[in-house]
Structure to design on (682 residues):
C-alpha cells in the first residue's frame, strides 16, 4: 500500500463561458484581490494541513507560514491567476497586460484555521461569520477545504458541516506523503464519490497538483448552487446532528481509504519520545536555540565587520566627496547625510546578514515541524504556573515580532486570557531587540556573544513566566487554565523554496523598518542634535552634549544611575528605542559619529570602543553587570509604538497604558537589582 491516490482521472464537466459572481465580505491585510468580476474562493481547513502554504503557492504572495496553529489569524487575500488549462500563472508582479494574466483568475481568501464551524475562539468565529452567518450574497462563490490525507476524519468534519449549506465545496488533499508512510492509501475518486464533491491530490510545498485544483474549482463553479442538506443556520448548532455527522465522516473515510497505519510507529513518534519528553524535551529545546544563536553570531560576524567598514569608510567618504563637489561640504546637509543617515541607518544595515541567517534557521525549524514540539515542551511550564496552555502560541510569535503576536491572542477564547497574554507579549525578545543583544554581546563578550544572546532569551522567558504568575494571582485569580490542544505535524525535510520565501518575507519586514521608520527617527534625532541650547553655536554646528538632544538626555540619565548606565548617550538611545528597538543602535551610532572628545581627552576610537568606554565610566568600573542591567531594561521596558497600537486595538487603551507601567517597573527594578548584585562579583 504505497500509492496515496487513484490513477483514475477526476471527472470533468463543461466550463460555463461566464459565471455569476458575488462579492464576499472577506477583506484581509495580505495582498490584493483579482478583478472586480473574479469569483471569490475561500481556503478553509484545520491548522497544520498546509492551508497557508497553499495560499502562498497559488497567489505568489509569500505570506508568512508556520508549523503551529494560530499563524493565520487575519484573512489573507490575493489574486489566483492561471491559464485556461488550469496552469497557475508564474507572473506575480505584472500589471495585468501579459497574455497569461488575461486568461482567468480568482480572488483567493485565506480563512483562519478552524476544525469546525462551531467557534471556540475569535479567529474561528471569523471563519463561521464569513461562511455561515454572512448573507448568502456576501459569501464566497466556492470553498476549498484543505484536508490532511493522513488524518482524514479530523479534517472532514468541516466538510460535513459545509454540506449543510449552499456552498460549492472542493477538497484539496495534502500530506499524502505522510499518509503513504503510514500505509494509508487514499482513492481520491472513491472519496469524491462518498463526499459528493471533487477531491484533488496536491503537494503545496512542492507546487504539485495546483493545475488540477484550478480545473476542479472551475468545474465546481460551473455547476448549479447545491441545495443544502439541511436548511437554516440553526441546523449547524443542533448538537443532536453531531452523531450523524461523525457517522457520515466515518463512512466517507472507509469508502475512500484503505489501511489505518495504526499498528505502525512512525519516525515522528520515535523522535517525539525525546523531543516532547518532560525532561529531555526542554533540554533539547534549549540546546537547539543555543545552537541557533551561536551559529548566527559566529557566521555573521565577519560579514558584519565588512559592512561596518564599508559604510563608515567608502560610503561615508563618497557621500562627503559628492557633497563637497557640489558646494555642500561642511554644511548641515553633510551632517544630516553622513553623520545622520549613513552612520545611523548604515550601522543598522550591518545586521542584515545576521537577521537573514537567523530567519533561515528559524524557518528550517518551523518547516521541519520542530517548533510545534517546542510549543508542547513549554506549554507544560505555562500550565504548571497557572497560565493558559494555549497562550504559548502567540508568545512564540512574539519572539519574531510583538505586533502579530498581539493579534494572535485572538485564538484564545476567554477575554481575560487575551488581555493577560497581550500584556505578556512585550516581554518576549523580538528580532528588533536581537540586533542590540548581538551588538553588545560582540563588544563585551566577543566569542561568547551567542551564549549572551541565548541568556537574554532565557531572561525573556523568565520575565514572561514571572510577570504572568504575579498577574494571574492578583488580577485574574479566578481564571481557569486551559490545556494545549495542538496537532503535531510529522517531521519533514524542509524545502528550499518555502524556507527562502519565509525568510525573505521576514527580512523584508526588517528592511522596511530600516528604510521607513528608522530613517524618520534618524532624521528626527539629527535635527535635535543640530539645535543648540547655548549661545555661541549655530544650527548644525553644536556639540551633541549642548544640543537639544543632549540636554534632554542628560536630564533623564540620572534615573539609570542605580542600574549602572547613567551615561546620557545610553539614556537617549533608550528613549529613541521607544519608537523602534532597532533605533537604539542607529541613535547610538549617530551620537558617537558626531560627538567630539572632550578637551584634553584622547580619541576613544571606533563605535565599539566608545560604547565600552561609556559603560566603564557610568558603572564605576563594573561594565559587565551594567551591560546585563541594560540588556534586561531593553528587554522589559516600554514596547515599540507599533506594539502599543496593536495592544490598544486588541485589548483597549486602559490595558495598553497598564502594560507600559508594568514594563517600566519590571525593567527598572530588575536592572537595578542586576547591577547592584552583579557589581559585588564583577
Amino acid at each position: 500500500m504505497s500509492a496515496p491516490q487513484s490513477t483514475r482521472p477526476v471527472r470533468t464537466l463543461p466550463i460555463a463561458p461566464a459565471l455569476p459572481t458575488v462579492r464576499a465580505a472577506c477583506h484581509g491585510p495580505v495582498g490584493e484581490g483579482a478583478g472586480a468580476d473574479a469569483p471569490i474562493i475561500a481556503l478553509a481547513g484545520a491548522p497544520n494541513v498546509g492551508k497557508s502554504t497553499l495560499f502562498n503557492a497559488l497567489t505568489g504572495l509569500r505570506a508568512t507560514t508556520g508549523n503551529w496553529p494560530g499563524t493565520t489569524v487575519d484573512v489573507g487575500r490575493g489574486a489566483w491567476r492561471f491559464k485556461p488549462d488550469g496552469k497557475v500563472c508564474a507572473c506575480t508582479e505584472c500589471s495585468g497586460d501579459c497574455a497569461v494574466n488575461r486568461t482567468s483568475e480568482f480572488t483567493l481568501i485565506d480563512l483562519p484555521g478552524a476544525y469546525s464551524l462551531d467557534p471556540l475562539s475569535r479567529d474561528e468565529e471569523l471563519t463561521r461569520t464569513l461562511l455561515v452567518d454572512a448573507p448568502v450574497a456576501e459569501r464566497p462563490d466556492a470553498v476549498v477545504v484543505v484536508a490532511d490525507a493522513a488524518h482524514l476524519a479530523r479534517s472532514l468534519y468541516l466538510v460535513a458541516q459545509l454540506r449543510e449549506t449552499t456552498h460549492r465545496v472542493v477538497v484539496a488533499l495534502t500530506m499524502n506523503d505522510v499518509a503513504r508512510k503510514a500505509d494509508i492509501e487514499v482513492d481520491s475518486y472513491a472519496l469524491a464519490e462518498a463526499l459528493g464533491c471533487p477531491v484533488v491530490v496536491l503537494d503545496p510545498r512542492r507546487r504539485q497538483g495546483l493545475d488540477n485544483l484550478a480545473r476542479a474549482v472551475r468545474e465546481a463553479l460551473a455547476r448549479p448552487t447545491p441545495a443544502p442538506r439541511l436548511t437554516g443556520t440553526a441546523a449547524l448548532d443542533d448538537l443532536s446532528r453531531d452523531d450523524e455527522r461523525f457517522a457520515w465522516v466515518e463512512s466517507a473515510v472507509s469508502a475512500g481509504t484503505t489501511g489505518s497505519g495504526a499498528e505502525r510507529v512512525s519516525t515522528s513518534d520515535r523522535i517525539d519520545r525525546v523531543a516532547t519528553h518532560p525532561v529531555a524535551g526542554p533540554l533539547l529545546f534549549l540546546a537547539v536555540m543555543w545552537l541557533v544563536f551561536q551559529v548566527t553570531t559566529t557566521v555573521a560576524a565577519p560579514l558584519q565587520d565588512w559592512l561596518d567598514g564599508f559604510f563608515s569608510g567608502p560610503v561615508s567618504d563618497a557621500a562627503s566627496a559628492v557633497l563637497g563637489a557640489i558646494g555642500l561640504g561642511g554644511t548641515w546637509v553633510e551632517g544630516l547625510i553622513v553623520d545622520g543617515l549613513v552612520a545611523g541607518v548604515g550601522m543598522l544595515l550591518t545586521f542584515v546578514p545576521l537577521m537573514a541567517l537567523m530567519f533561515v534557521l528559524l524557518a528550517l525549524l518551523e518547516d521541519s515541524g520542530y517548533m510545534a514540539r517546542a510549543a508542547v515542551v513549554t506549554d507544560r511550564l505555562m500550565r504548571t504556573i497557572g497560565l493558559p496552555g494555549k497562550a504559548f502560541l502567540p508568545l512564540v510569535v512574539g519572539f519574531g515580532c510583538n505586533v502579530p503576536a498581539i493579534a494572535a491572542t485572538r485564538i484564545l477564547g476567554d477575554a481575560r486570557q487575551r488581555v493577560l497574554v497581550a500584556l505578556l507579549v512585550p516581554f518576549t525578545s523580538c528580532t528588533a531587540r536581537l540586533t542590540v543583544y548581538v551588538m553588545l554581546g560582540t563588544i563585551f563578550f566577543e566569542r561568547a556573544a551567542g551564549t549572551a544572546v541565548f541568556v537574554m532569551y532565557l531572561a525573556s522567558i523568565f520575565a514572561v513566566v514571572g510577570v504572568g504568575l504575579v498577574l494571574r494571582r492578583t488580577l485574574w485569580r479566578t481564571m481557569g487554565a486551559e490545556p494545549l490542544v495542538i496537532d503535531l505535524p510529522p517531521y519533514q525535510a524542509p524545502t528550499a523554496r518555502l524556507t527562502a520565501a519565509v525568510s525573505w518575507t521576514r527580512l523584508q519586514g526588517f528592511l522596511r523598518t530600516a528604510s521607513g521608520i528608522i530613517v524618520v527617527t534618524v532624521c528626527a534625532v539629527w535635527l535635535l542634535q543640530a539645535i543648540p541650547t547655548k549661545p555661541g553655536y549655530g544650527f548644525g554646528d553644536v556639540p551633541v552634549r549642548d544640543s537639544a538632544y543632549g540636554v534632554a538626555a542628560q536630564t533623564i540619565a540620572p534615573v539609570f544611575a542605580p542600574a549602572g548606565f547613567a551615561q546620557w548617550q545610553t539614556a537617549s538611545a533608550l528613549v529613541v528605542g521607544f519608537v523602534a528597538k532597532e533605533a537604539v543602535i542607529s541613535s547610538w551610532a549617530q551620537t558617537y559619529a558626531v560627538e567630539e572628545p572632550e578637551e584634553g581627552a584622547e580619541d576613544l576610537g571606533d563605535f565599539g570602543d566608545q560604547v565600552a568606554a561609556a559603560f566603564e565610566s557610568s558603572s564605576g568600573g563594573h561594565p559587565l553587570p551594567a551591560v546585563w542591567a541594560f540588556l534586561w531594561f531593553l528587554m522589559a521596558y516600554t514596547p515599540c509604538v507599533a506594539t502599543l497600537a496593536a495592544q490598544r486595538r486588541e485589548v483597549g487603551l486602559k490595558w495598553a497604558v497598564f502594560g507600559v507601567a508594568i514594563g517600566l517597573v519590571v525593567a527598572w527594578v530588575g536592572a537595578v537589582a542586576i547591577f547592584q548584585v552583579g557589581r559585588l562579583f564583577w
About this structure: The chain has 27 helices and eight strands. The two ends are 66 Å apart (CA to CA). The CA atoms of residues 521 and 583 lie 7 Å apart. The mean pLDDT is 76.
